[in-house]
């Protein structure tokens, strides 16, 4: 589905991403871990063409960046990240229903005539993902967790083949975080997920693969059971860590 080959991103002489190669196949859900500033968001923002690689090639859904119509790729990728916060001013004026509906149009806000089938599809998604109690509410009045859910459903309505979630649980309290994680476990069959996080305990059972990024390079990548080990995480963070597994999730202890 997605293949990066020897991708680098260099700014002001600094190698932010260096010679990164990997493949993401259909049916895989990836969690991306790495210290602050290691390049996680930059690496995946290339799929939306928010960042353009300085070297190497990126292929997705049969299109090579720079050689084919990348809009076809963007149509297949959904993203929910704090970069969307810049649209808050527009979202704040809208109801949850309209925000989900705008996901069909792939616009921030609704500027075109809305068709009956689009209203029906929005109703279906609101119902399927249990947002009925929120649908008439103004976005500005939602909790942080509810806002994230609404933006995720807004992305899902365009049937993305890949959904990038960049630290979706940041700043959520324990209840909201667990509620969002349960929600993600429920939606994971709808799409393939790329989940960028700092919290190892957010790596839910549906995550199949892990990529560890350090200083702009892939430190380790592969199946979750092979990568999420005490040794790899200790080396990634330069700390002695020990993982404890509970209900299919790993919890970190310092040792
Ligand atoms: N367009 C750009 N121009 C210059 N520097 C950039 C650009 N994009 C990213 N960077 C820098 O690249 C580094 C990696 O940033 P990035 O946001 O990808 O890291 P991250 O691993 O997602 O970090 P965090 O976990 O803290 O969110 C940072 O030092 C950032 O300032």
From TrEMBL:
It is a peripheral membrane protein. InterPro entries: AAA+_ATPase (IPR003593), ABC_transporter-like_ATP-bd (IPR003439), ABC_transporter-like_CS (IPR017871), ABC_transpr_CbiO/EcfA_su (IPR015856), Metal_Ion_Import_ABC (IPR050153), P-loop_NTPase (IPR027417). Residues 2-240 form the ABC transporter domain. The keyword ATP-binding applies. Its main location: membrane. Keywords: ATP-binding, Nucleotide-binding, Transport. It comes from the Bacteria. Belongs to the ABC transporter superfamily. It holds the Pfam family ABC_tran. GO terms for cellular component: plasma membrane. This is ATP-binding cassette domain-containing protein. The lineage of its organism: Bacteria, Bacillati, Bacillota, Tissierellia, Tissierellales. One of its GO terms (molecular function) is ATP binding. The keyword Nucleotide-binding applies. It is found in: Cell membrane.
